[in-house]
Amino acid sequence: MTDYAPDQEMEIEALEAILMDEFKEIHSSESGLNTSNRCFQITLSPQDDDADDSTATPVLLALIFSHTEKYPDEPPLLNVKSLKGIQVSDLRVLKEKLDQEASENLGMAMVYTLFTSAKEWLSERFAEDADTENFDDEETAKDEVIIPHGEPVTVDTFLAWRERFEAELALERAKLMPESALSAPKEKKISGRQWFESGRASAKGAAAVAEGSDVEVEEDIDFDDEDFEDDEDDMLEHYLHHA
């Protein structure tokens, strides 16, 4: 008849040396197992072993086991218990996973293997929750951030904009002047302002450029006088709209 006790005791000593404070013996009445044999509890968290201890641990799990008479030729008695933040449904999933792995590792000391598997499951399961929470926090932060558009309006910035605006407007007006007005001899040329103020950019654009001038209009251009009459209030409103 095989004596399993020495191998079981050797495994207990190895677990104590490896897990240290995470490993302890508990009374069978605390284990939730139907046994009077020695019972042990391993405390697990999803954190890495070298994680900062000051970081709050969101979940804690207790892996409880007891050797049966013929362990490791038969599975150990197992129980999982939430010490912090783990739902009963998650505990059921983990228990089924560990029972399956125990049946696949018969004939060898397996408690440390089960401990490693439970820790990996815990890390993966609750890392997903942490990622989801971080994503939600980031989205909330984005929603709360108010991004300013444009720049503050001051007298200086408005005057600078108005100067640019008038220069651009003058350029557009120059583009619309007849080529005859632009190519006339110097003494007969008129400014864009004179051309528009002369009233010759009328509905039919057929009159001479200025009184006494022999520069002719080559094409019909339809403008209303009010098209180019912008007072400062209108310009300020335009500036604020595009700032």
UniProtKB/TrEMBL annotation:
Gene3D superfamilies with a match to the protein in the record: Ubiquitin Conjugating Enzyme (3.10.110.10)
CDD domains per the UniProt record, alphabetical: RWD_GCN2 (cd23823)
Domain (RWD) ranges: 10-125
Pfam families: RWD
SMART domains in UniProt: RWD
InterPro entries: GIR2-like, RWD_dom, UBQ-conjugating_enzyme/RWD
The protein's name: RWD domain-containing protein
